[in-house]
Design a protein that fits this description.
The chain starts with 13 loop residues before the first helix and ends with a helix. It has a single domain (14-63, 98-313), classed as Rossmann fold (3-Layer(aba) Sandwich). Strands 6-7-8-3-9-10 form a 6-stranded mixed beta sheet, with helices on both faces. Strands 2-1-4-5 form a 4-stranded antiparallel beta sheet, covered by helices on one side. The radius of gyration is 19 Å and the shape is globular. By secondary structure, the protein is α/β, with parallel strands linked by helices. Helix 7 (211-223) packs parallel to helix 8. Helices cover 33% and strands 20% of the residues. It contains 11 helices and 10 strands. It has helices spanning 14-21, 57-60, 112-119, 144-148, 166-176, 182-195, 211-223, 241-256, 268-274, 292-297, 302-313, and strands spanning 72-83, 86-97, 101-105, 127-132, 135-136, 151-154, 229-233, 261-264, 277-282, 285-290. The protein binds adenosine-5'-triphosphate and magnesium ion. The site of magnesium ion has 5 residues, from helix 3.
């Protein structure tokens, strides 16, 4: 059963929308970081205190806590989005099956981040719909906060809460939004930290960690919410080159474990190796999609060939 929305994404101030993406309230945000996305990546919302909302995330979207059965996880249908006169998404159709890894590639400004943000309901779409495990989550009747809790969104900037230790960064949303006990949430968080080689960082503050470690914690924080879909937006772009590999390793492991993921990336080698399908976006339309071997090595469309030529000459392929 999908709960009625407290308000649409469009009707909310931007800072509230970013806080909502995280699973925590803005009050959890460090001084000076409100609206910066620190809350955004973590997990609760201003509506968190709404009676009866705690712990009902999965039920609200009509999906179970169990691992999703094979089938369609996400269907993006005719999605259009404009910012003023700038039409950024011009009718995008895309389906993601469970356990698939879809890499979105395309030039800066082509609309990759906007598409991910529309899926995560951080942007209200102008037309079309987003269907998540069979539910139209862009319907006005849907509580986007409850839907969003089932999608783990990780951004280029890690957006960890600087005033909270690593462990607390990870357990905050599961405790506040899923209603887990602190002990259970800590147990799970420690297991995740150990799985990704960060157990010894649990008691540190984020600024004691390298960029790569912080980004791995940000991914773990998203995983701690048991997402059914991970949305990763250029998660290696802010990292020094020597730190990129450790973050890509985490994503590879998630892919191997069957996590369904929609990933915007400029890492063509990673897309080639990990993606079930590569989707090339230009000017808000999907120009071409297919297996990496097809799109990256034998592109059919002249626009794809031009883009890949530029990537190649920039030494990024
Ligand atoms: N909140 C916003 N307000 C106004 N315009 C926006 C907003 N967000 C994105 N845009 C515009 O939408 C277009 C697509 O931006 P988007 O960030 O989706 O591109 P991208 O493919 O992710 O690029 P990059 O590879 O640089 O991350 C750009 O022209 C951008 O200026
Ligand atoms: Mg982007």
């Amino acid at each position: 059963m999908i709960r009625p929305a407290a308000g649409t994404a469009a009707a909310r101030p931007a800072a509230a929308r970013t806080a909502a993406a995280a699973g925590t309230s803005q009050a959890e945000t460090a001084p000076g970081s409100a609206g910066s996305g620190a809350a955004a990546a973590a997990g609760t919302s201003q509506a968190e205190t709404a009676p009866g909302s705690a712990g009902s995330g999965a039920a609200a979207a009509g999906t179970s806590q169990a691992a999703p059965a094979a089938g369609t996880a996400l269907r993006i249908e005719g999605v259009r989005k404009a910012f003023g006169a700038n039409c950024v998404l011009k009718g995008v159709d895309l389906a993601v099956d469970t356990h698939q890894v879809i890499c979105l590639i395309g030039a800066s400004g082509s609309g990759k981040s906007t598409l991910l943000r529309c899926v995560d309901l951080l942007e209200a779409i102008d037309a079309g719909r987003v269907v998540f495990f069979g539910h139209d989550v862009t319907s006005p009747a849907v509580d986007e906060i409850l839907v969003r809790r089932q999608m783990g969104m990780v951004f280029q900037s890690f957006n960890l809460f600087p005033h909270l230790r690593v462990l607390r960064n990870i357990t905050l949303a599961p405790v506040k939004a899923l209603g887990m006990t602190a002990a259970d949430a800590e147990g799970e968080a420690m297991a995740l930290l150990a799985r990704f080689g960060l157990a010894d960082k649990a008691r540190d503050y984020p600024d004691r960690l390298s960029g790569g470690q912080q980004q791995r914690v940000a991914i773990i924080r998203a995983l701690a919410m048991h997402p059914k879909l991970m949305l990763l937006d250029e998660v290696t772009s802010a990292l020094d080159p020597e730190l990129v590999g450790e973050v890509l390793d985490v994503i590879r492991e998630l892919a191997a474990g069957g996590m369904t993921m929609l990933i915007a990336t400029h890492e063509m080698g990673f897309a080639r190796e990990t993606a079930t399908r590569v989707v090339f976006l230009e000017d808000g339309v999907i120009v071409e999609e297919g297996p990496p071997s097809q799109v990256l090595d034998a592109p059919q469309d002249e626009r794809t060939r031009r883009f890949l030529g530029r990537v190649l000459s920039a030494g990024r392929m």
